[in-house]
Structure formats: C-alpha cells, structure tokens
Design a protein that fits this description.
Largest sheet: 5 strands, parallel
Structural class: alpha/beta
Low-confidence stretches: none
Strand order of the largest sheet: 4-5-6-3-7
Oligomer: single chain
Order of helices and strands: EEEHEHHHEHEHE
Number of helices: 6
Helix content: 25-40%
Strand content: 15-25%
Distance between the termini: 13 Å
Length: 181
C-alpha cells in the first residue's frame, strides 16, 4: 500500500502479511503510521494499493479512545456491542471488572475504562481483532494478568489479533510476531 499524509509519504509500497490465528504486535515510533495502518485495514482511510485476505471476516476493533457511552453501565456498554450473553460475564471476569459491572464510566478509573473497552471488544469477538494500544494505562501486574488471559484465549480459539504498542516488552510477551514500521 501507499499512503500520503499531509503531503508526506507515510507508506511507500508497504507490504505486510498477518498470519491467521496469530497475535501480531505492530511497533514503531510515534507518528510513523501505526494507527493509520489499522484505519486503512478497516477501510477508514484512503490509500493506494490493495488489501486482501479479510473478505468475509468478522472484525472486532478497539480504538485508542475507549468510546464508552457515559449514560450506560459497564455491563450495558459491553452488551450494546456484544449482546446479552455469557460472553459479557466472561469478559468482565477476564478483565477483572466483575465488581464494577454496574458502574458508569465516570465512576471508573482510566485503567478500568481501558479494560472496559477491552472487555467489550473481547465479548463482541470476531475472526480478527484490531487493537490500538489495548493495554495502555494498566499497571504492569494487572496488564500481565489480563493480557496473558486474553492472549491465551485468543490463541486457543485461533483468533487473528493485530495490536499496536509502543512497549517492546509487551510486544515480545504477547505477540507471536512483531512488525516494526
């Protein structure tokens, strides 16, 4: 793919392959186009070239912003996307948010809001998940517990996961592959 942004060449003949059923970390310095790459993959940005292999896939997305509805409880935010199902309870458990299920976003810390967005994406599921800095704002111990549980589950289910991170340790720990832009 090729992408110009603000008159500058962001990507010039960028050619990437993401393996099905693997977790791939996308890394690079700020401003290099990691989020733009995800937006291109989702059809949210214009570009030159082509993207293949995503036809017919259900794609779950977690943006940099948590995008929680402030008038809904955490549980209702998840159910809005995932529907009422056992997946909601499982997502709350995996992200350690069971005790906060009936709270609204304003009652949650920033890290809890981030986990709520992650729980919503997990519960909604998909053949492929595209996650933009999913573990930002979580302290190291909590991040390790939550990320390990989720990654183990995604690997067991054969979900293709692409996540952006600035943290090389996070990329090594949770990614099967690392792509550096």
């Amino acid at each position: 793919i090729n992408k110009n942004y603000g008159g500058e060449q962001l990507f010039n003949n960028l050619n990437l392959r993401f393996e099905t059923g693997k977790i791939t970390a996308v890394m690079g310095p700020s401003g290099l186009g990691k989020t733009t790459l995800l937006r291109i993959m989702l059809g949210l940005e214009d570009f030159e070239g082509s993207i293949g292999g995503m036809e017919g896939m259900r794609i779950g997305v977690m943006f940099q912003d948590n995008l929680l509805m402030p008038w809904l409880t955490l549980r209702e935010n998840i159910e809005l996307i995932a529907g009422i199902s056992a997946a909601t309870d499982e997502a709350l458990k995996l992200t350690e948010l069971e005790d906060a299920a009936d709270k609204k976003p304003a009652e949650l810390s920033g890290g809890m809001q981030r986990r709520a967005a992650l729980a919503r994406t997990f519960a909604a599921g998909g053949d492929m998940l595209i996650l933009d800095e999913p573990f930002t704002g979580l302290d190291e111990e909590l991040r390790d517990r939550v990320a390990s549980r989720l990654c183990e589950r995604w690997k067991r289910e054969g979900t293709t996961v692409i996540f952006v991170t600035h943290d090389s340790e996070e990329a090594r720990k949770y990614g099967d592959d690392i792509i550096r832009l």
